[in-house]
Structures are given as C-alpha cells and as structure tokens.
Design a protein that fits this description.
223 residues, mainly alpha, 42% helix
C-alpha cells in the first residue's frame, strides 16, 4: 500500500521510520512521507523528498493501526519491523512475500518495483486531472481506485502546493516540476520514458467526451 501510493522504491519503503510518516488528515486520509537517506542506505538521487499522498479509507486505516501499535517506540524505529530486527530479515520476512504474491497474481515478470511504477502512473493521471479540470473518468480495471480521480481527492493530494488558492491561480507550467519532485526524478523525460507506458490512458484528457480509458485488446506482437 505504501509503496504504491507513496511511489517508493523497495529500499525507500524498507527504510521508512516512524518519524518519517505524518498523518495530515484522518478525515481525508492524507499522509506525508519523508523519504531520506539513513544509516541503512541512501535514496537513489541522494536527496531527501517529501511525498504528499491520499490513500483510500480502508487502506489508510491499516497504516494508522500500524502507527498506533508502535506509538510508544522511538522515532527512529523502522515502520515495518519487530524490535531491533535487521534490515535483511525485514526484507526476507515482509518484502519478499509481497513480491511472491505479485508474481502469483500478475505473472513472473512482475517485480516489487512495479508498485512504484503503478503509483506513478496513478499520480500522473491525478496531475492531468488537476491541470485539465477534466470530467471524472474511470481507472479501467481498478474499481477499488475509482474515487482517486474525483475532485475532492485531487484537491487534497495537491493541497500542499495549491494551499488555499483556487487551481486557476497556480502556474501550471510548474506541474511537471511538482510531479518530478514527488517522484524523485530530476527530469520529466525519465518519468515519461521509463514509467508512463502507452497513450490510451491519455484520451480522457485530450478528448473530454471520451470518459473511459480505451481497452487494448491486442498484443504488442500482433500490432
């Protein structure tokens, strides 16, 4: 859940500490994740970054429960761990099973990193929804995420940037800079080339009358 909605790499999720997570709003299920370099490892860019995100209610509740369980622990305690559990053990006990589950559901080619890639894809859709003020559309085969493109969710996710101003007062030329700063990429070209695949999901923004994503019913080989 955290790797997807906060767009985290495996190591970044593994190194999250209690003090790195701030609940901004329980009512709106919004969180701030501070991704930093620690003694266990550094971020890929060697820079820290704050990530503002909104998580569906049932999933957000799980994170709040985990934080509450550890409320009396020191701030530097890793979020996902037992007391004084080593990094390699945490990787083996918690992250490897997630990878195996992903492979069982989605196929052997899937990696843990695809959680980050999918989260970035959702974030880009939210960014376009924010910029275009487009009609709400679906997320194709993900009904559990249907609300993630609604105006309230979009407004909450970009509240850190918009603050109390209406979106029309924002310099939308800075949108891609905001996207990259949240993702941890220096250049948008990296995001576009390696993370945003296909173009059919862009249709609802450039064709407002087409409110659903096109379904690709052919393979790349057939094309």
């Amino acid at each position: 859940i955290i790797s997807y909605f906060a767009m985290l790499r495996r190591g970044e999720a593994l190194r999250l500490r209690l003090k790195d997570i701030i609940i901004i709003s329980k009512e709106n299920n919004s969180f701030l994740f501070n991704v930093t370099s620690t003694t266990e490892g550094k971020t890929k860019s060697r820079k820290s970054r704050p990530i503002y995100t909104v998580i569906p209610p049932a999933m957000a509740q799980l994170i709040r429960i985990l934080i509450d369980i550890k409320k009396d622990m020191p701030p530097n305690t890793p979020l996902i761990s037992f007391n004084e559990e080593k990094k390699n053990d945490r990787q083996k006990h918690y992250f490897l099973p997630v990878t195996k589950a992903l492979k069982a559901v989605c196929g052997e080619e899937v990696r843990f990193h695809h959680l980050r890639k999918s989260g970035i894809h959702l974030f880009m859709q939210q960014a376009l929804q924010f910029a275009y003020d487009a009609p709400v559309h679906d997320l194709s085969f993900t009904p559990d995420l249907a609300d993630m493109l609604t105006p309230d969710i979009i407004r909450e996710r970009f509240a850190y940037w918009v603050e109390d101003r209406p979106p029309t007062f924002i310099n939308d030329q800075q949108l891609f800079d905001q996207v990259c700063s949240q993702i941890g990429h220096e250049h948008y070209a990296t995001t576009r080339f390696f993370y945003l695949h296909g173009i059919q999901w862009v249709f609802p923004y450039i064709r407002p009358q087409q409110k659903i994503c096109t379904v690709q019913d052919f393979t790349h080989l057939e094309l």
